[in-house]
């Protein structure tokens, strides 16, 4: 799991400033849980090292969107910001590639003698 200090560094926050630690830790935890779900990892499995960059990148996006949750765009005094509807969209190709390389495949067989209902 990404560290709190790494997230603070990316956000430009001082690592010794603990005023937002609970919010940042919750963002990291939820992001990690969502990625684990997307990867279909079981309870004891960790996010693979090849994809360890995703939770921290998504956490930065989620932190930057605080107080703008649910919005797809935000405009103020000529500045416009557009948010993805899913924070993992930009990483879906990476997730799909990892799943392809690490899947054990599914074998489907067909019984040629099975009667089909008409």
Key traits:
118 residues; mainly alpha; two-stranded antiparallel ribbon; 4 helices; 2 strands; elongated
How would you concisely characterize the structure shown here?
This protein is mostly helical and 118 residues long.
What does this structure look like?
Helices cover 42% and strands 7% of the residues. With 118 residues, the chain is mainly α. The protein has a two-stranded antiparallel ribbon. α1 (4-11) crosses α3 (53-64) and α2 crosses α3. The radius of gyration is 20 Å and the shape is elongated. The chain starts with a helix and ends in a 16-residue tail after the last helix. The model has no long low-confidence stretch (mean pLDDT 84).
Low-confidence stretches: none
Order of helices and strands: HHHEEH
Shape: elongated
Determine the fraction of residues in helical runs and give it as a percent range.
Answer: 40-55%
Could you tell me the number of beta strands? 2
Strand ordering within the main sheet: 1-2
Number of helices: 4
Distance between the termini: 53 Å
Given helix and strand content, the structural type is mainly alpha
Strand content: 5-15%
Average pLDDT, all residues: 84
Largest sheet: 2 strands, antiparallel
Rg: 20 Å
């Amino acid at each position: 799991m990404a560290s709190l200090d790494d997230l603070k560094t990316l956000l430009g926050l001082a690592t010794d400033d603990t005023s937002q630690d609970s919010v940042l830790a919750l963002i990291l935890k939820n992001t990690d849980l969502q990625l684990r779900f997307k990867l279909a990892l079981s309870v004891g499995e960790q996010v693979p090292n090849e994809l360890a960059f995703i939770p921290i990148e998504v956490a930065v996006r989620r932190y930057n969107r605080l107080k703008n949750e649910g919005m797809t765009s935000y405009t103020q005094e000529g500045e416009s910001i557009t948010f993805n509807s899913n924070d993992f969209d930009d990483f879906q190709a990476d997730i799909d590639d990892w799943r392809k390389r690490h899947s054990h495949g599914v074998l489907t067989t067909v019984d040629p003698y099975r009667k089909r209902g008409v």
